[in-house]
Specification:
Number of helices: 13
Largest sheet: 7 strands, mixed
CATH superfamily of the largest domain: Type I PLP-dependent aspartate aminotransferase-like (Major domain)
Oligomer: single chain
Radius of gyration: 21 Å
Shape: globular
CATH class of the largest domain: Alpha Beta
Structural class: alpha/beta
CATH architecture of the largest domain: 3-Layer(aba) Sandwich
Distance between the termini: 52 Å
Helix content: 25-40%
Strand order of the largest sheet: 2-8-7-6-5-3-4
Strand content: 5-15%
Number of domains: 2
Length: 399
């Protein structure tokens, strides 16, 4: 009997997209649904980006591009890095991909053999586990509950790295929690990383320009420059510029890893489309007013979300300081009922909330923290306010 590859038994659909699809189905059926499930920024880039794409179409040759990325795109990314405090990188330290998720998959393929260990904190972005499982890696999770503000401690990291894992994967600002590590917290973790030279470091920093409260964005390479030779930084235009559908991701790091990604690109995607490249260059080198304005807007939305959640008796939510997510602990609902439906866990809670109030959230278990749920607060402002009010009603009705 013909069989699929064994790795497909380990592959599963994105839990986030499952919830988003269910919300779309209900909306198509006429339900009034507020969708807090999918992590899209819900704004569009400035007109200069579209103009650059139109101009590129006029001179399009229909040919292939560079496996690494076109020079002007790499230079735009290097400029972006320089503005963020990273200097000394060159084009041969960089490579592109079809979005940050594709880049993470490329890096996992380049660095992990079956059975190799990868370490990352919980809560985690769902694709971290999905990618590692497809490739047959050994996954070590480091639980970071709400009691420690969903943040990894130096003691946890030191213990985990004692086994010499092949890769340590770190996300800052965090999806799903919105938490941001301070300069001192990054420095403390970097000091631990220096002690363990046998582990590659990948930092998923795609929300680095969506940081609130003046806390700033910081990276291990800035804290300990000697980590530069084994640290890969992942970035993207998706969140910063409201361009998730354009699919442009980046990495910067050791030249041999960048070359490995280039080689992988040559064997599957070949290159980014030229029109997409032109738009990405324009986004990063052109006016940044849209990005700056949206960061301020998301900070205000964060305040509204946090105020509404903390007004619900028993709900706890560490204060997010970046991205556009909140990750409240809603375990107060477990063991209770809503309209006769028993809520035993986060999945039950999200299902009941969607059915009863038309509010779609992703269960925290999808991110490795089953006491919580994720709210993406990028929907239109009126929907946000309405959805939060419905959540308050839902919890008030629990018996």
């Amino acid at each position: 009997m013909l069989q699929l590859a064994q790795r497909m038994s380990r592959a599963k659909p994105s839990a986030i997209m499952v919830i988003a699809d269910r919300a779309r189905q209900l909306k198509a059926a006429g339900r009034d649904v507020v969708n807090f499930s999918i992590g899209v920024p819900n704004f569009l880039p400035g007109e200069h980006v579209y103009q650059a794409a139109r101009e590129a179409l006029k001179t399009d040759t229909g040919g292939y591009g560079s496996n690494r990325g076109r020079d002007d795109l790499l230079d735009a990314f290097l400029k972006h890095l320089h503005e963020g405090g990273f200097q000394g990188y060159k084009r041969n330290n960089c490579a592109v991909a079809i979005g940050a998720k594709h880049m993470l998959y490329n890096l996992a393929e380049a660095l992990l053999d079956p059975g190799d260990e990868i370490v990352f904190a919980t809560p985690y972005w769902t694709s971290y586990v999905d990618i590692a499982e497809i490739l047959g890696a050994k996954i070590t999770l480091l639980p970071c509950p709400p009691e420690q503000n969903y943040k990894l401690t130096p003691v946890q990291l030191d213990k985990a790295l004692a086994s010499k894992p092949k890769v340590f994967l770190f996300n800052n600002p965090s999806n799903p929690t919105g938490m941001v590590y301070t300069k001192d917290e990054i420095a403390a973790l970097a000091a631990v990383l220096v002690k363990h030279p046998d582990t590659w470091i990948i930092t998923d920093d795609i929300y680095n320009r969506m940081v609130f409260d003046g806390v700033g964005y910081h990276n291990f390479v800035q804290a300990k420059p000697e980590l530069r030779e084994r640290t890969v930084i992942v970035d993207s235009i998706s969140k910063t510029y409201g361009m998730p559908g354009w699919r442009v991701g980046f990495m910067v790091g050791p030249a041999k890893i960048a070359q490995a990604v280039v080689t992988l690109n040559s064997n599957h995607i070949t290159s980014l489309p030229e029109v997409v490249t032109a738009a990405a260059v324009a986004a990063m080198t052109g006016p940044q007013d849209v990005t700056v304005a949206k960061c301020a807007d998301f900070a205000a939305r964060r305040d509204e979300v946090l105020g509404a959640l903390l007004a619900i008796p028993g709900v706890k939510c560490p204060r997010p300081q970046g991205a556009f997510y909140a990750f409240p602990d809603i375990s107060i609902a477990f063991g209770k009922s809503h309209n006769g439906k028993k809520i035993e866990n986060d999945t039950d809670c999200c299902a009941a909330l969607l059915d009863a109030k038309g509010v779609a959230c992703v269960p925290g278990s999808a991110f490795g923290e089953p006491r919580s749920l994720r709210i993406s607060y990028t929907c239109p402002r009126a929907q946000l306010t309405s959805g939060l009010a419905r959540m308050q009603e839902f919890f008030a009705e629990l018996k």
